[in-house]
Task: inverse folding
């Protein structure tokens, strides 16, 4: 039983790492699209997008998520 629990834990960690990299990539893409010639603004937007992504991962209220998706469909 411990082996199964251990494997499930490892799989969960791997999934979160891969998902995190996808989010980071998308956030980087957004920042480059908005400020293609300004590295400091790209970093600022990237940090904002990462913070928003982490927050949205914790939101449990479906209405909040729907509002965010409606108002910011590409972010």
Result:
């Amino acid at each position: 039983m411990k082996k199964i629990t251990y494997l499930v834990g490892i799989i969960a960690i791997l999934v979160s790492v891969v998902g995190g990299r996808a989010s980071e990539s998308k956030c980087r893409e957004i920042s480059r699209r908005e400020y293609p010639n300004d590295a400091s603004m790209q970093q600022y937007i990237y940090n904002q997008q990462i913070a928003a992504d982490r927050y949205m991962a914790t939101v449990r209220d479906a209405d909040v998520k729907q509002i965010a998706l409606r108002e910011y469909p590409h972010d």
Remarks:
- The two ends are 42 Å apart (CA to CA).
- Residues 14-18 have pLDDT under 50 and may be disordered.
- Residues 2-71 form one domain.
- The helical segments are 2-34, 39-58, 62-71.
